[in-house]
Amino acid sequence: MTTGLRIRNGLPLYLVGKLINDFNPIFCRAHDRAISFIGARDRLAIVLNIINNRSDSIGSDWNYAYAFDSNEVKINIKYFLTKSNANKPMPLDIMLSKNYLSISNSNKEFQARLTSIIEDPPIPRIKEMNDGIAIRIKDLNVMAEQVNSIDGEVVELKYSDHRLIMKSINHEYPTYTVPTANYSESKDDSEEKITSCLKQILLISCQLTSELESKSAELRFYPGGAAQLASINDYISTRCLLTAVKYNTIL
Amino acid sequence: MNILLLDNVRITQLIKAVSSNLIRAQQEEKKDGDESLINSFLDKAGFDSVLLAKYFLKENDPVEGSRYLLSGAYSFEKSGAFNQALACYNKIINIGEEEFLDQATLGISRLDSIENDLDISTKEGKIIALDFLIWKNYGLTTTSAQKSISDEFNLEVSSASIRSYAKILEERKRAIIWGGPQGREYHIYPNIADLATREKYYGQKSLFVGSIENRITDQFNVNFNNLDYNKELFILNGSIVPKMVLAVDMDAFVQNLEKFSRPPFAVKAFGELKKSTDFGENGYETTLEEELDLVDANKLYDGQTEEAIYERQEIGGHN
Questions:
Q1: Given its phi and psi angles, is residue B136 left (phi above 0), alpha (psi -120 to 50 degrees) or beta?
Q2: CATH 1.10.10.10: does it fit domain B120-190?
Q3: For the whole model, what pTM was predicted?
Q4: Which of A141, A150, A244, B198 has its CA 20 to 30 A from that of B117?
Q5: Tens digit of pLDDT for each residue in A136-186?
Q6: Whether B249 contacts chain A with CB within 8 A
Q7: B215–chain A Cβ distance below 8 A for any pair
Q8: What is the predicted ipTM?
Q9: Which of A25, A121, A222 faces B224 most closely, judged by CB atoms?
Q10: What is the pLDDT of residues B235-278, one digit of tens each?
Q11: Is A33 within a domain?
Q12: In what order do the strands lie in the sheet with A236-242?
Protein backbone atom coordinates (compact mmCIF):
# COMPACT_ATOMS: atom_id res chain seq x y z
CA MET A 1 0.00 0.00 0.00
CA THR A 2 1.26 3.47 -0.84
CA THR A 3 0.43 6.52 1.14
CA GLY A 4 1.83 9.98 1.37
CA LEU A 5 1.57 13.68 1.84
CA ARG A 6 1.20 16.77 -0.34
CA ILE A 7 3.03 19.89 0.79
CA ARG A 8 2.93 23.37 -0.66
CA ASN A 9 6.51 23.64 -1.92
CA GLY A 10 10.02 22.17 -1.73
CA LEU A 11 11.25 24.10 1.30
CA PRO A 12 11.48 20.98 3.53
CA LEU A 13 13.79 19.36 0.96
CA TYR A 14 15.94 22.49 0.91
CA LEU A 15 16.28 22.06 4.69
CA VAL A 16 17.06 18.35 4.28
CA GLY A 17 19.77 19.53 1.91
CA LYS A 18 21.24 21.54 4.80
CA LEU A 19 21.15 18.50 7.09
CA ILE A 20 23.09 16.45 4.55
CA ASN A 21 26.19 18.58 5.12
CA ASP A 22 26.48 17.57 8.76
CA PHE A 23 24.92 14.14 9.07
CA ASN A 24 25.22 10.79 7.35
CA PRO A 25 22.97 8.86 7.28
CA ILE A 26 19.81 10.92 7.43
CA PHE A 27 17.05 9.13 9.29
CA CYS A 28 13.44 9.54 8.40
CA ARG A 29 10.34 8.51 10.24
CA ALA A 30 6.84 8.78 8.86
CA HIS A 31 4.54 8.41 11.78
CA ASP A 32 1.57 10.01 13.42
CA ARG A 33 0.57 12.37 10.59
CA ALA A 34 4.09 13.77 10.15
CA ILE A 35 7.29 13.01 8.27
CA SER A 36 10.43 13.65 10.31
CA PHE A 37 13.94 13.87 8.94
CA ILE A 38 16.53 13.35 11.66
CA GLY A 39 20.26 13.94 11.90
CA ALA A 40 21.95 12.58 15.02
CA ARG A 41 25.40 12.47 16.51
CA ASP A 42 27.00 12.98 19.90
CA ARG A 43 25.85 16.22 21.52
CA LEU A 44 23.56 17.15 18.63
CA ALA A 45 20.34 15.89 17.16
CA ILE A 46 18.21 17.76 14.66
CA VAL A 47 14.63 16.87 13.91
CA LEU A 48 12.90 18.39 10.92
CA ASN A 49 9.17 17.76 10.99
CA ILE A 50 6.86 18.13 8.03
CA ILE A 51 3.45 18.39 9.56
CA ASN A 52 0.48 16.92 7.80
CA ASN A 53 -2.11 19.58 8.48
CA ARG A 54 -3.56 20.09 5.05
CA SER A 55 -6.86 18.70 3.96
CA ASP A 56 -5.53 17.62 0.56
CA SER A 57 -3.07 15.13 2.09
CA ILE A 58 -3.23 11.77 0.43
CA GLY A 59 -3.18 9.76 3.62
CA SER A 60 -2.02 9.72 7.19
CA ASP A 61 -2.20 6.13 8.41
CA TRP A 62 1.48 5.36 8.23
CA ASN A 63 4.42 4.07 10.25
CA TYR A 64 7.64 3.81 8.28
CA ALA A 65 11.33 4.14 9.13
CA TYR A 66 14.21 4.88 6.76
CA ALA A 67 17.95 5.60 6.85
CA PHE A 68 19.14 7.45 3.75
CA ASP A 69 22.68 7.77 2.50
CA SER A 70 23.31 11.52 2.52
CA ASN A 71 25.38 11.49 -0.66
CA GLU A 72 22.58 9.83 -2.59
CA VAL A 73 20.03 12.21 -1.13
CA LYS A 74 22.19 15.13 -2.23
CA ILE A 75 22.16 13.90 -5.82
CA ASN A 76 18.47 13.11 -5.78
CA ILE A 77 17.24 16.43 -4.43
CA LYS A 78 19.80 18.63 -6.19
CA TYR A 79 17.03 20.72 -7.72
CA PHE A 80 15.83 21.81 -4.27
CA LEU A 81 19.24 22.77 -2.95
CA THR A 82 18.63 26.15 -4.58
CA LYS A 83 16.29 28.12 -2.36
CA SER A 84 14.47 29.84 -5.21
CA ASN A 85 13.52 26.44 -6.64
CA ALA A 86 12.46 25.20 -3.23
CA ASN A 87 10.22 28.20 -2.63
CA LYS A 88 8.35 27.99 -5.95
CA PRO A 89 4.65 27.59 -5.18
CA MET A 90 4.50 24.15 -6.74
CA PRO A 91 2.94 21.44 -4.53
CA LEU A 92 5.14 18.47 -3.76
CA ASP A 93 3.94 14.91 -3.27
CA ILE A 94 5.89 12.62 -0.94
CA MET A 95 4.78 9.02 -1.35
CA LEU A 96 5.75 6.45 1.27
CA SER A 97 6.61 2.81 0.68
CA LYS A 98 8.29 0.22 2.86
CA ASN A 99 11.87 0.95 1.75
CA TYR A 100 11.69 4.22 -0.13
CA LEU A 101 10.16 7.66 -0.47
CA SER A 102 9.05 8.91 -3.87
CA ILE A 103 9.01 12.63 -4.35
CA SER A 104 7.50 14.51 -7.27
CA ASN A 105 6.05 17.92 -7.87
CA SER A 106 2.53 18.31 -9.10
CA ASN A 107 3.34 18.60 -12.79
CA LYS A 108 5.95 15.79 -12.58
CA GLU A 109 8.81 18.04 -13.70
CA PHE A 110 10.69 16.77 -10.70
CA GLN A 111 10.69 13.11 -9.71
CA ALA A 112 13.07 11.38 -7.32
CA ARG A 113 13.27 8.36 -5.11
CA LEU A 114 15.10 8.16 -1.78
CA THR A 115 15.88 4.54 -0.93
CA SER A 116 16.55 3.36 2.60
CA ILE A 117 19.97 1.77 3.05
CA ILE A 118 18.64 -0.48 5.82
CA GLU A 119 15.24 -2.06 6.01
CA ASP A 120 13.25 -0.65 8.92
CA PRO A 121 16.26 0.86 10.74
CA PRO A 122 16.15 1.82 14.42
CA ILE A 123 15.51 5.56 14.63
CA PRO A 124 17.55 7.50 17.22
CA ARG A 125 15.45 8.47 20.16
CA ILE A 126 15.39 12.25 20.36
CA LYS A 127 13.43 13.34 23.36
CA GLU A 128 11.64 16.65 23.24
CA MET A 129 12.44 19.02 26.07
CA ASN A 130 9.74 20.55 28.16
CA ASP A 131 9.94 22.90 31.12
CA GLY A 132 13.24 24.67 31.58
CA ILE A 133 13.54 28.21 30.32
CA ALA A 134 12.39 29.26 26.87
CA ILE A 135 13.71 32.47 25.35
CA ARG A 136 12.47 33.94 22.11
CA ILE A 137 15.35 34.66 19.75
CA LYS A 138 14.74 37.81 17.74
CA ASP A 139 17.05 37.09 14.83
CA LEU A 140 18.78 33.74 14.43
CA ASN A 141 20.97 35.09 11.63
CA VAL A 142 22.44 37.61 14.05
CA MET A 143 22.91 34.91 16.65
CA ALA A 144 24.65 32.68 14.07
CA GLU A 145 27.03 35.54 13.21
CA GLN A 146 27.79 36.05 16.89
CA VAL A 147 28.43 32.34 17.44
CA ASN A 148 30.71 32.30 14.42
CA SER A 149 32.92 35.05 15.82
CA ILE A 150 33.41 33.40 19.21
CA ASP A 151 36.82 31.79 19.76
CA GLY A 152 37.23 28.31 21.16
CA GLU A 153 35.50 24.99 20.96
CA VAL A 154 32.79 25.49 23.59
CA VAL A 155 30.25 28.29 23.95
CA GLU A 156 28.68 29.22 27.26
CA LEU A 157 25.08 30.41 27.24
CA LYS A 158 23.90 32.27 30.32
CA TYR A 159 20.41 33.49 31.07
CA SER A 160 20.34 36.14 33.75
CA ASP A 161 18.11 39.17 34.44
CA HIS A 162 16.06 38.26 31.34
CA ARG A 163 19.14 38.59 29.16
CA LEU A 164 20.82 35.85 27.15
CA ILE A 165 24.61 36.23 27.25
CA MET A 166 26.91 34.18 25.05
CA LYS A 167 30.69 33.81 25.16
CA SER A 168 33.52 31.35 24.80
CA ILE A 169 34.12 29.16 27.82
CA ASN A 170 37.83 29.90 27.56
CA HIS A 171 37.75 33.62 26.77
CA GLU A 172 35.97 36.49 28.46
CA TYR A 173 35.67 38.45 25.19
CA PRO A 174 33.83 38.82 22.96
CA THR A 175 30.70 38.54 25.09
CA TYR A 176 27.42 38.90 23.23
CA THR A 177 23.96 39.75 24.38
CA VAL A 178 21.77 37.75 22.05
CA PRO A 179 18.88 39.83 20.71
CA THR A 180 15.70 38.41 22.20
CA ALA A 181 12.08 39.34 21.83
CA ASN A 182 11.99 40.23 25.50
CA TYR A 183 10.03 37.14 26.23
CA SER A 184 10.65 34.25 28.53
CA GLU A 185 8.61 31.44 29.89
CA SER A 186 9.61 29.38 32.83
CA LYS A 187 8.43 27.72 35.97
CA ASP A 188 11.51 29.06 37.64
CA ASP A 189 13.22 32.09 36.18
CA SER A 190 14.48 33.47 39.46
CA GLU A 191 17.93 31.96 39.18
CA GLU A 192 20.75 32.45 36.75
CA LYS A 193 20.92 29.59 34.21
CA ILE A 194 24.13 28.51 32.52
CA THR A 195 24.74 25.81 29.96
CA SER A 196 27.41 25.09 27.42
CA CYS A 197 27.61 23.45 24.03
CA LEU A 198 30.01 22.90 21.19
CA LYS A 199 30.35 26.04 19.06
CA GLN A 200 30.17 24.15 15.77
CA ILE A 201 26.99 22.41 16.83
CA LEU A 202 25.34 25.63 18.02
CA LEU A 203 26.25 27.24 14.71
CA ILE A 204 24.71 24.41 12.66
CA SER A 205 21.56 24.66 14.76
CA CYS A 206 21.26 28.44 14.36
CA GLN A 207 21.86 28.30 10.63
CA LEU A 208 19.37 25.53 10.01
CA THR A 209 16.70 26.98 12.26
CA SER A 210 17.09 30.45 10.72
CA GLU A 211 16.17 29.02 7.32
CA LEU A 212 12.58 28.72 8.47
CA GLU A 213 12.46 32.51 8.89
CA SER A 214 10.01 31.97 11.66
CA LYS A 215 9.11 34.55 14.27
CA SER A 216 8.76 31.83 16.90
CA ALA A 217 12.35 30.62 17.26
CA GLU A 218 13.09 29.80 20.86
CA LEU A 219 16.04 28.61 22.84
CA ARG A 220 15.16 26.37 25.74
CA PHE A 221 17.80 25.30 28.16
CA TYR A 222 18.66 23.91 31.55
CA PRO A 223 21.49 24.76 33.90
CA GLY A 224 24.44 22.49 33.21
CA GLY A 225 22.35 20.46 30.81
CA ALA A 226 20.96 20.26 27.33
CA ALA A 227 19.61 23.08 25.23
CA GLN A 228 17.05 23.05 22.48
CA LEU A 229 16.67 25.47 19.63
CA ALA A 230 13.28 25.20 18.00
CA SER A 231 11.30 26.97 15.34
CA ILE A 232 8.03 26.41 13.57
CA ASN A 233 5.99 27.77 10.68
CA ASP A 234 2.63 26.51 9.55
CA TYR A 235 3.79 23.14 8.17
CA ILE A 236 7.50 22.70 9.04
CA SER A 237 9.24 22.68 12.39
CA THR A 238 12.88 22.22 13.35
CA ARG A 239 14.13 21.11 16.71
CA CYS A 240 17.84 21.02 17.51
CA LEU A 241 18.83 19.21 20.67
CA LEU A 242 22.23 20.40 21.85
CA THR A 243 23.54 18.20 24.62
CA ALA A 244 25.71 19.96 27.08
CA VAL A 245 29.42 19.85 27.56
CA LYS A 246 30.02 19.56 31.27
CA TYR A 247 32.25 22.21 32.73
CA ASN A 248 34.42 19.74 34.57
CA THR A 249 35.29 18.02 31.31
CA ILE A 250 36.82 21.21 30.00
CA LEU A 251 38.60 22.90 32.86
CA MET B 1 22.33 -18.32 26.56
CA ASN B 2 21.27 -16.92 29.88
CA ILE B 3 21.64 -19.39 32.75
CA LEU B 4 19.08 -17.55 34.81
CA LEU B 5 16.43 -18.59 32.32
CA LEU B 6 17.57 -22.20 32.03
CA ASP B 7 15.63 -25.32 32.78
CA ASN B 8 16.35 -28.11 35.23
CA VAL B 9 18.18 -30.18 32.63
CA ARG B 10 20.83 -27.53 32.17
CA ILE B 11 21.10 -27.01 35.91
CA THR B 12 21.67 -30.74 36.38
CA GLN B 13 24.32 -30.65 33.65
CA LEU B 14 26.08 -27.80 35.42
CA ILE B 15 26.02 -29.59 38.78
CA LYS B 16 27.53 -32.67 37.11
CA ALA B 17 30.14 -30.51 35.38
CA VAL B 18 31.24 -29.00 38.70
CA SER B 19 31.69 -32.47 40.26
CA SER B 20 33.36 -33.87 37.17
CA ASN B 21 35.91 -31.03 36.94
CA LEU B 22 36.71 -31.23 40.65
CA ILE B 23 37.27 -35.00 40.36
CA ARG B 24 39.45 -34.58 37.28
CA ALA B 25 41.53 -31.95 39.07
CA GLN B 26 41.93 -34.31 42.03
CA GLN B 27 42.96 -37.23 39.79
CA GLU B 28 45.56 -35.11 38.00
CA GLU B 29 46.87 -33.91 41.34
CA LYS B 30 47.27 -37.47 42.66
CA LYS B 31 49.43 -38.46 39.74
CA ASP B 32 51.44 -35.22 39.93
CA GLY B 33 49.91 -34.11 36.62
CA ASP B 34 50.32 -30.84 34.76
CA GLU B 35 49.62 -27.91 37.08
CA SER B 36 48.04 -25.85 34.28
CA LEU B 37 45.62 -28.67 33.48
CA ILE B 38 44.68 -29.02 37.17
CA ASN B 39 44.04 -25.30 37.45
CA SER B 40 41.98 -25.19 34.29
CA PHE B 41 39.71 -27.92 35.72
CA LEU B 42 39.47 -25.95 38.96
CA ASP B 43 38.63 -22.72 37.12
CA LYS B 44 35.90 -24.47 35.13
CA ALA B 45 34.46 -25.87 38.35
CA GLY B 46 34.70 -22.40 39.92
CA PHE B 47 32.89 -20.56 37.13
CA ASP B 48 30.18 -23.23 36.88
CA SER B 49 29.72 -23.00 40.68
CA VAL B 50 29.28 -19.23 40.35
CA LEU B 51 26.66 -19.75 37.62
CA LEU B 52 24.80 -22.18 39.85
CA ALA B 53 25.04 -19.79 42.79
CA LYS B 54 23.55 -17.00 40.65
CA TYR B 55 20.75 -19.33 39.63
CA PHE B 56 19.94 -20.35 43.22
CA LEU B 57 20.12 -16.75 44.45
CA LYS B 58 17.71 -15.75 41.70
CA GLU B 59 15.46 -18.57 42.92
CA ASN B 60 15.59 -17.07 46.44
CA ASP B 61 17.71 -19.90 47.88
CA PRO B 62 20.55 -18.06 49.66
CA VAL B 63 21.81 -21.18 51.46
CA GLU B 64 22.34 -23.19 48.29
CA GLY B 65 23.64 -20.07 46.58
CA SER B 66 26.20 -19.47 49.34
CA ARG B 67 27.19 -23.15 49.26
CA TYR B 68 28.05 -22.96 45.58
CA LEU B 69 29.84 -19.66 46.08
CA LEU B 70 31.99 -21.24 48.77
CA SER B 71 32.71 -24.21 46.54
CA GLY B 72 33.63 -21.80 43.73
CA ALA B 73 35.82 -19.75 46.06
CA TYR B 74 37.80 -22.83 47.14
CA SER B 75 38.29 -23.91 43.52
CA PHE B 76 39.44 -20.44 42.53
CA GLU B 77 41.70 -20.03 45.52
CA LYS B 78 43.39 -23.31 44.80
CA SER B 79 43.87 -22.49 41.12
CA GLY B 80 45.32 -19.07 41.88
CA ALA B 81 42.28 -17.16 40.57
CA PHE B 82 42.42 -14.89 43.59
CA ASN B 83 40.14 -12.09 42.39
CA GLN B 84 37.45 -14.59 41.44
CA ALA B 85 37.81 -16.22 44.87
CA LEU B 86 37.65 -12.86 46.61
CA ALA B 87 34.46 -11.94 44.72
CA CYS B 88 32.88 -15.24 45.89
CA TYR B 89 33.82 -14.59 49.53
CA ASN B 90 32.58 -11.00 49.33
CA LYS B 91 29.30 -12.14 47.83
CA ILE B 92 28.84 -14.70 50.64
CA ILE B 93 29.34 -11.97 53.23
CA ASN B 94 26.96 -9.74 51.32
CA ILE B 95 24.29 -12.50 51.36
CA GLY B 96 24.85 -12.92 55.11
CA GLU B 97 23.97 -16.59 55.68
CA GLU B 98 25.54 -17.24 59.09
CA GLU B 99 26.88 -20.75 58.50
CA PHE B 100 29.13 -19.49 55.68
CA LEU B 101 30.34 -16.20 57.13
CA ASP B 102 33.35 -17.47 59.10
CA GLN B 103 34.69 -19.45 56.17
CA ALA B 104 34.30 -16.45 53.87
CA THR B 105 36.05 -14.14 56.34
CA LEU B 106 38.89 -16.63 56.73
CA GLY B 107 39.18 -16.92 52.96
CA ILE B 108 39.48 -13.16 52.58
CA SER B 109 42.21 -12.99 55.21
CA ARG B 110 44.15 -15.76 53.42
CA LEU B 111 43.96 -13.78 50.17
CA ASP B 112 45.24 -10.62 51.84
CA SER B 113 48.89 -11.58 51.66
CA ILE B 114 48.78 -13.66 48.52
CA GLU B 115 51.26 -11.48 46.60
CA ASN B 116 54.09 -12.56 48.94
CA ASP B 117 53.26 -16.27 48.61
CA LEU B 118 53.38 -16.54 44.82
CA ASP B 119 55.76 -19.18 43.53
CA ILE B 120 56.97 -17.70 40.25
CA SER B 121 59.52 -20.40 39.46
CA THR B 122 57.00 -22.45 37.44
CA LYS B 123 55.07 -21.60 34.27
CA GLU B 124 51.82 -21.73 36.21
CA GLY B 125 53.30 -19.40 38.82
CA LYS B 126 54.16 -16.89 36.09
CA ILE B 127 50.62 -17.12 34.69
CA ILE B 128 49.22 -16.39 38.14
CA ALA B 129 51.65 -13.49 38.53
CA LEU B 130 50.46 -12.01 35.23
CA ASP B 131 46.84 -12.51 36.33
CA PHE B 132 47.63 -10.73 39.60
CA LEU B 133 49.14 -7.74 37.78
CA ILE B 134 46.35 -7.46 35.22
CA TRP B 135 43.83 -7.10 38.03
CA LYS B 136 46.06 -4.83 40.06
CA ASN B 137 46.54 -2.42 37.12
CA TYR B 138 43.08 -2.93 35.56
CA GLY B 139 44.66 -3.83 32.28
CA LEU B 140 48.11 -4.17 30.72
CA THR B 141 49.61 -4.30 27.26
CA THR B 142 52.20 -6.92 26.35
CA THR B 143 54.97 -4.36 26.88
CA SER B 144 53.64 -2.92 30.13
CA ALA B 145 53.08 -6.47 31.44
CA GLN B 146 56.74 -7.29 30.80
CA LYS B 147 57.81 -4.17 32.69
CA SER B 148 55.35 -4.75 35.50
CA ILE B 149 56.48 -8.36 36.04
CA SER B 150 60.08 -7.21 36.03
CA ASP B 151 59.37 -4.40 38.54
CA GLU B 152 57.14 -6.39 40.89
CA PHE B 153 58.67 -9.86 40.76
CA ASN B 154 62.14 -9.19 39.44
CA LEU B 155 61.41 -11.58 36.61
CA GLU B 156 62.21 -11.25 32.90
CA VAL B 157 59.51 -12.71 30.65
CA SER B 158 59.53 -12.52 26.84
CA SER B 159 56.65 -10.85 25.00
CA ALA B 160 55.85 -14.20 23.35
CA SER B 161 55.47 -15.78 26.79
CA ILE B 162 53.27 -12.89 27.97
CA ARG B 163 51.00 -13.43 24.96
CA SER B 164 50.89 -17.16 25.59
CA TYR B 165 50.04 -16.67 29.29
CA ALA B 166 47.40 -14.07 28.42
CA LYS B 167 45.73 -16.51 26.00
CA ILE B 168 45.64 -19.13 28.75
CA LEU B 169 44.06 -16.60 31.13
CA GLU B 170 41.49 -15.71 28.48
CA GLU B 171 40.66 -19.38 27.90
CA ARG B 172 40.16 -19.73 31.65
CA LYS B 173 37.79 -16.69 31.62
CA ARG B 174 40.02 -14.68 33.92
CA ALA B 175 41.06 -12.10 31.33
CA ILE B 176 39.83 -10.58 28.07
CA ILE B 177 42.22 -9.69 25.27
CA TRP B 178 41.99 -7.19 22.47
CA GLY B 179 44.71 -6.85 19.85
CA GLY B 180 47.39 -9.12 18.47
CA PRO B 181 48.35 -11.44 17.03
CA GLN B 182 50.51 -10.35 14.05
CA GLY B 183 52.99 -8.00 15.68
CA ARG B 184 50.30 -6.00 17.45
CA GLU B 185 50.33 -5.66 21.19
CA TYR B 186 47.85 -7.56 23.29
CA HIS B 187 45.69 -5.37 25.50
CA ILE B 188 44.84 -7.60 28.43
CA TYR B 189 42.00 -6.68 30.79
CA PRO B 190 40.50 -8.35 33.87
CA ASN B 191 37.26 -10.21 33.14
CA ILE B 192 34.99 -8.43 35.58
CA ALA B 193 31.73 -9.60 34.01
CA ASP B 194 32.01 -13.22 35.13
CA LEU B 195 32.77 -12.54 38.79
CA ALA B 196 30.39 -13.67 41.51
CA THR B 197 29.81 -10.01 42.24
CA ARG B 198 30.91 -6.98 40.24
CA GLU B 199 30.18 -4.64 43.12
CA LYS B 200 33.79 -3.76 43.94
CA TYR B 201 34.39 -2.69 40.34
CA TYR B 202 31.68 -0.05 39.82
CA GLY B 203 33.38 3.04 38.41
CA GLN B 204 36.20 0.92 37.00
CA LYS B 205 37.00 0.73 33.29
CA SER B 206 37.62 -2.64 31.68
CA LEU B 207 36.90 -4.67 28.55
CA PHE B 208 33.64 -6.59 28.28
CA VAL B 209 32.87 -9.21 25.68
CA GLY B 210 29.40 -10.26 24.69
CA SER B 211 26.68 -10.18 22.13
CA ILE B 212 24.61 -7.08 21.44
CA GLU B 213 21.00 -8.07 21.63
CA ASN B 214 17.82 -6.07 21.76
CA ARG B 215 17.68 -2.30 21.87
CA ILE B 216 16.26 -1.00 25.13
CA THR B 217 16.68 2.76 24.70
CA ASP B 218 12.97 3.19 25.34
CA GLN B 219 13.38 1.66 28.79
CA PHE B 220 15.28 4.72 29.96
CA ASN B 221 13.87 8.17 30.59
CA VAL B 222 16.01 11.13 29.68
CA ASN B 223 16.52 13.75 32.33
CA PHE B 224 18.16 16.75 30.70
CA ASN B 225 19.71 18.19 33.83
CA ASN B 226 22.89 16.19 33.47
CA LEU B 227 22.90 14.89 29.96
CA ASP B 228 26.39 14.26 28.68
CA TYR B 229 25.88 12.46 25.37
CA ASN B 230 23.06 11.22 23.25
CA LYS B 231 23.01 7.50 23.97
CA GLU B 232 21.48 4.34 22.61
CA LEU B 233 21.10 1.42 24.99
CA PHE B 234 21.29 -2.29 24.29
CA ILE B 235 21.29 -5.56 26.19
CA LEU B 236 24.76 -7.13 26.24
CA ASN B 237 24.33 -10.85 26.65
CA GLY B 238 25.90 -13.98 25.27
CA SER B 239 28.26 -15.47 27.81
CA ILE B 240 27.61 -12.69 30.34
CA VAL B 241 25.55 -13.74 33.37
CA PRO B 242 23.64 -11.82 34.44
CA LYS B 243 23.20 -9.83 31.26
CA MET B 244 24.31 -6.20 31.19
CA VAL B 245 23.28 -2.96 29.52
CA LEU B 246 25.62 -1.46 26.95
CA ALA B 247 25.37 2.33 26.58
CA VAL B 248 26.52 3.40 23.14
CA ASP B 249 27.32 6.98 22.12
CA MET B 250 25.15 8.28 19.30
CA ASP B 251 28.20 8.54 17.01
CA ALA B 252 28.96 4.86 17.61
CA PHE B 253 25.36 3.95 16.86
CA VAL B 254 25.19 5.99 13.66
CA GLN B 255 28.61 4.88 12.40
CA ASN B 256 27.67 1.22 12.87
CA LEU B 257 23.98 1.47 12.09
CA GLU B 258 23.83 -1.70 10.04
CA LYS B 259 25.28 -3.79 12.88
CA PHE B 260 23.03 -2.20 15.51
CA SER B 261 20.01 -2.64 13.25
CA ARG B 262 20.56 -6.35 12.92
CA PRO B 263 21.44 -7.79 16.32
CA PRO B 264 22.77 -10.06 17.62
CA PHE B 265 26.40 -9.26 16.87
CA ALA B 266 29.56 -9.97 18.84
CA VAL B 267 31.31 -7.03 20.38
CA LYS B 268 34.11 -6.14 22.75
CA ALA B 269 33.34 -2.95 24.66
CA PHE B 270 35.83 -0.97 26.69
CA GLY B 271 34.17 1.30 29.20
CA GLU B 272 33.18 2.11 32.74
CA LEU B 273 31.11 -0.33 34.75
CA LYS B 274 28.09 1.25 36.44
CA LYS B 275 24.78 0.24 37.90
CA SER B 276 22.03 1.06 35.44
CA THR B 277 20.39 3.15 38.18
CA ASP B 278 23.60 5.17 38.60
CA PHE B 279 23.44 6.09 34.93
CA GLY B 280 20.84 8.64 35.99
CA GLU B 281 23.77 10.92 36.74
CA ASN B 282 24.31 11.06 32.99
CA GLY B 283 20.67 11.89 32.43
CA TYR B 284 19.34 8.38 31.79
CA GLU B 285 16.91 7.11 34.40
CA THR B 286 16.08 3.45 34.02
CA THR B 287 12.57 2.08 33.92
CA LEU B 288 13.89 -1.51 33.66
CA GLU B 289 12.22 -3.92 36.05
CA GLU B 290 15.53 -5.47 37.09
CA GLU B 291 18.64 -3.62 38.12
CA LEU B 292 21.33 -4.49 35.61
CA ASP B 293 24.96 -3.50 35.46
CA LEU B 294 25.83 -1.14 32.64
CA VAL B 295 28.92 -0.49 30.55
CA ASP B 296 29.32 3.05 29.21
CA ALA B 297 31.43 2.26 26.15
CA ASN B 298 34.35 4.53 25.25
CA LYS B 299 35.62 2.08 22.64
CA LEU B 300 33.94 -0.67 20.65
CA TYR B 301 35.58 -3.52 18.79
CA ASP B 302 33.95 -5.97 16.39
CA GLY B 303 33.87 -9.24 18.31
CA GLN B 304 34.61 -11.30 15.20
CA THR B 305 37.32 -9.29 13.44
CA GLU B 306 38.72 -7.39 16.48
CA GLU B 307 38.54 -4.26 14.30
CA ALA B 308 37.98 -1.00 16.20
CA ILE B 309 34.53 0.25 15.21
CA TYR B 310 34.29 3.28 17.52
CA GLU B 311 36.40 5.40 19.81
CA ARG B 312 34.96 8.31 21.75
CA GLN B 313 36.62 11.65 21.04
CA GLU B 314 37.11 13.56 24.25
CA ILE B 315 36.77 17.34 23.92
CA GLY B 316 40.11 19.08 24.31
CA GLY B 317 41.70 15.75 25.18
CA HIS B 318 40.16 15.70 28.65
CA ASN B 319 38.05 13.01 30.23
A1: alpha
A2: yes
A3: 0.88
A4: B198
A5: 888 888 999 999 999 888 898 888 887 889 999 888 788 888 888 765 555
A6: yes
A7: yes
A8: 0.88
A9: A222
A10: 998 778 889 999 999 999 999 999 999 989 999 999 999 988 88
A11: yes
A12: A63-68, A26-31, A34-41, A44-51, A236-242, A227-232, A218-221, A133-137, A180-186
